[in-house]
Write a structure and sequence with these properties.
Layout lengths: L8 H15 L7 E6 L5 H10 L6 E6 L7 E6 L3 E8 L6 E5 L11 H9 L5 E7 L2 H4 L2 H4 L4 E5 L9
Parallel strand pairs: 1-2, 1-5, 5-6, 6-7
Antiparallel strand pairs: 2-3, 3-4
Protein name: DUF2124 domain-containing protein
Pfam family, one: DUF2124
Organism: Methanoculleus frigidifontis
C-alpha cells in the first residue's frame, strides 16, 4: 500500500473517509461496522459516523470483536452520532477497523480480529489509526485494506 495523499486536521480524516463511502454506493440495506476499543475508539467512531450520517446505510459499533455487543449508531439532535443501547445483528458491507485494537495491552489479538473479519465478506475494509499503529504492529501485512487513514496527533500542546 502506498501513500495516496497527505492531508491535515480533522477534515483531512473525515473527507476522504466520506468520499470513499459515498463512491461505494451504499444502500439502505448495507451496514458500516466499526470494530474498536470501548471508550477510546468510540469518540472517533462517532466522529466518522457523523461525517457520513447522510448515507442511507446503518452504522454499527462493535466493542473489540464482540459482535453480540454490537450497538447501532444513531443521530442525537444537538449532540451528534451516539452509540445506542439497542443491540443489533452484524452483517457488514464495509468493515472499519480502529487502530486501538492493534495497541499493546488491548484484550484482543490480531489473530482474533483476522478471524472475525474473515467470517464476513465485506465489499471494503478500511483502517483508521493514529501514529502509524497499524504499521508498527504489523497489521498492514495482515489485512487487505482498501483504504487506511493514519492520522498524527503531534505535537500535543498543553496551555495553563
Amino acid at each position: 500500500m502506498e501513500l495516496a495523499e497527505q492531508l491535515t486536521s480533522v477534515p483531512g480524516m473525515l473527507r476522504p473517509f466520506k468520499a470513499f463511502l459515498t463512491e461505494a454506493g451504499l444502500s439502505r440495506d448495507d451496514q458500516i461496522v466499526y470494530y474498536g476499543c470501548p471508550g477510546t475508539c468510540t469518540p472517533f467512531v462517532e466522529l466518522l459516523a457523523f461525517a457520513t450520517r447522510d448515507l442511507p446505510c446503518e452504522q454499527i459499533f462493535v466493542p473489540y470483536v464482540d459482535e453480540v455487543g454490537a450497538r447501532k449508531l444513531h443521530m442525537v439532535t444537538e449532540v451528534g452520532m451516539q452509540a445506542s443501547a439497542e443491540k443489533v445483528p452484524v452483517d457488514p458491507t464495509v468493515i472499519v477497523l480502529m487502530g486501538g485494537l492493534s495497541m499493546p495491552n488491548v484484550p484482543v489479538s490480531r489473530d482474533q480480529v483476522v478471524q472475525v473479519v474473515g467470517t464476513h465478506k465485506p465489499s471494503a475494509l478500511i483502517g483508521v489509526c493514529f501514529m502509524k499503529m497499524f504499521e508498527k504492529m504489523g497489521w498492514l501485512e495482515s489485512f487487505d485494506f482498501n483504504m487506511v487513514i493514519d492520522a498524527t496527533i503531534d505535537p500535543v500542546n498543553i496551555w495553563r
